[in-house]
Amino acid sequence: MTFDPAQIHLDPADSLPLYQQIERALAAAIESGDLPASTRLPATRPFAKQLGVNRVTVVTAYAELAAEGYIASHVGRGAFVLDRIARAETPLPPSLRQPGDWSAHNFNREMMRLAQRPDIISFAPGMPATDLLPADAYRLALNTVLRRDGPEILQYGLYEGYMPLQDAIVAELAGFGITTGRDRLFLTSGTEQGLALVMRTVLQAGDRVLVEQPTYMHALDLLSGSGIEAHSLPCDDHGPRVDLLAGLLAELRPRLLYLTPTFHNPTGVTMPLERRQYLLRLAAEHDLLLLEDDVYRHLWLDEPPSPPLRALDAADNVIYTNGYSKCLLPGARIGYVVAPARLRARLAAAHQTLDVTPGELHQRALHHYLQGAQFVEHLHRLRAAQKKRRDALIDALATYMPQDCTWSLPGGGLYLWLKLPEDGPSATSLYVHALELGVAFAPGHLFYLNQEPGASHSLRLNFVLHPPAVIADGIRRLGNAWKQAAGNRP
Amino acid sequence: MTFDPAQIHLDPADSLPLYQQIERALAAAIESGDLPASTRLPATRPFAKQLGVNRVTVVTAYAELAAEGYIASHVGRGAFVLDRIARAETPLPPSLRQPGDWSAHNFNREMMRLAQRPDIISFAPGMPATDLLPADAYRLALNTVLRRDGPEILQYGLYEGYMPLQDAIVAELAGFGITTGRDRLFLTSGTEQGLALVMRTVLQAGDRVLVEQPTYMHALDLLSGSGIEAHSLPCDDHGPRVDLLAGLLAELRPRLLYLTPTFHNPTGVTMPLERRQYLLRLAAEHDLLLLEDDVYRHLWLDEPPSPPLRALDAADNVIYTNGYSKCLLPGARIGYVVAPARLRARLAAAHQTLDVTPGELHQRALHHYLQGAQFVEHLHRLRAAQKKRRDALIDALATYMPQDCTWSLPGGGLYLWLKLPEDGPSATSLYVHALELGVAFAPGHLFYLNQEPGASHSLRLNFVLHPPAVIADGIRRLGNAWKQAAGNRP
What we know:
The structure is a homodimer. The first copy, chain A, has helices at residues 18-32, 44-51, 55-67, 84-89, 94-97, 104-114, 135-149, 163-175, 191-202, 217-223, 245-252, 273-286, 344-354, 360-370, 374-400, 427-436, 468-488; strands at 71-74, 78-81, 121-122, 185-189, 208-213, 229-236, 239-240, 256-259, 289-293, 318-323, 334-338, 406-407, 415-419, 439-440, 442-443, 458-462. By secondary structure, chain A is an alpha/beta fold.
């Protein structure tokens, strides 16, 4: 062994934590071959003593190296350096190596991790593009309000939220055709907390709800284990099949339908105006609550979408959720719910009990950012960039994927829905080959409540995450992966 | 009328939103007498047209003026200026004017609002002192990580949280005597979300839990309406009466006991070591989970407190929650839960579903802040200042309150518990007089599950919110209020 771990030079004054300094030194030695495959790393206790650090620091460094595929730890035998080939063969943690283990839980977590691996072009995560976030403008906004408001901004805020931000949202909603007051607007720490708030407040064990099939996977998560019975409403190329709805309402008497009528997740489809109107009539007749998830509204590419259900809803049956995570700043975690009058008091009580109001600093910074023209300008730039990315994806699919693939033509949002030929490899077997070739996506079955035909041969592609050239490269890899997977079939 | 509202000069370039400009102009005119009592304000629609603003802007300005007591709106009659006396007589919104309406919900909200009224010295809210927050250091930390990490810091983070912060917390816990790994540590958006996470995951409808009597009011909120049966464990001057516990366990078979053994909210009491050890033995024998709320640990004034239950817990029965809202930064909303091994997997799944991880920006800024010596230095300064404030409160109570009042002698935390003479006015009737004289507190009954003797004649004082001279002034007012209330009794 030409490299002695005990010789690692640690600098407590470095901004990098000690465990990372250890991790990087060892990773560099492994990469350079100074620590060859199968080398046994020193045991954590004496090694920590040699380095003059806490044992937890070394344990953490080893855990990081294991997570990155550099080493493997065996209980009772210690930690060993893996060889390059073994590293390349294990791009996924064990929990995902078997398709049978792919729960939405595990997968969601992995999508976030894959997004941080530079060797994989991932179309999988449900997030906006980092390179298109208005980071500098938001940093300015943060500093402006920090200076303006002083220490008070770091205190607890009011449960209701920061009033000027509420007013700005009320004004923005008026632009969507939605009339509301602050008293019916509930700020939540991200839109997901809004969905959770509504589901906890409005539904109880034994209730039935309808969800679109396919639907947002986190909504399925929220419902599972709650004692609430979820049933699916099939969708076609124009959104939920409202022609089937009257029958389902009579049969099941559901309390609520959760849906994303505009730039749907995962399909990218938008529901036409007539369907919206028909749905609202049915809801009024059957006293059905509609939970409208509208987080993609700002992200139209070709033309502004139809008005939200909430804007067309004379009977006051629509609970509306939206937020700024997809169109502006995921990290600010600012979402909201607009409640029908009859649910206002119950939501207000639950909102305070659950304590889900976003942090005061982000509320004030967002409010400052929303003043003036910069939000409109940001959306303008974002749409131009995302339109190019969507078009690049569609071009690449036509070029590299087999002829009998079909896909949605999203007019906005983040997602395109790809259907593989039914007689070819499934999305999960394609996934294994795709990862080997350095590309990832979200297999369609994750978005299905019931596994029906089509679920296994569909997948979701987030089209905004990469510039056009990278998108083309990723889909080229995906086409090759499909050929490999198809060739491997018995 | 010498003042014409239509002449208000609005400046769209002003950083103040338009509704606030309108509100301030009208408030100034009311204060100066230019708009005398009983003047009818213009109707919102024509007024908005005159000013060239959206009607919502005027409606909002009026709502603000009404909330501040300047005007009253009557449906169908419009808005009128209130006279000074009417304003002085209605310092509280209608929801709180009748003691019977004092739910914890309403009161909590009002405590936050009262804290913003300069004419009232409030000892009521459950928050740390704004003037002692390390605002400048935290602004530096925010800017450092914003520059260091770029736009990525504004993306969604990992569900698990920011790993280096988790490591820093694991290291801090080691200093408390608590051994844990990242896998059993769950970051939550504030400690309250941690309590909610545990209650949702570990308990189900029909379960019984014990809470200290009195206890943290938000814990009672979380339990109410959940179908979980809460029972009270009486407390004395050294914390929960463990001598009564064996009987209660045999009788009720509760699943969990929620408690704050160190610098208790609301009483300020700390449980001695022997009681902790006896409690842990009982818990192990009866398979009772303990939910230990330790958010006041850092705030000791005289000597470091006994180790947390979690550090003494060989049987792994203690769920531990803590955070940085009371000792550092309420607005960063960073709390956490340490789980016993047998609850780890269930908490991990619920943690991801509920999506309660704190925002990435605050996680990274807090991590940066916790490196180096500044946190230790902050705590040092904080303790010195808060010790002076506690001592000032105790001196003032001895000077201004009636002889037969008694109070706890808190060794840390935020609260002192004051018991009024049982044959004098109750805390709620004292409250009404206190507000008139410009002082506020939290009446004791809010912290009680069952209204027992003592609840009505006790109150909580937050001793850290004001400098010593203001504390003395506030308690002087409280003493006068007590005399008024006692004199008013039949």
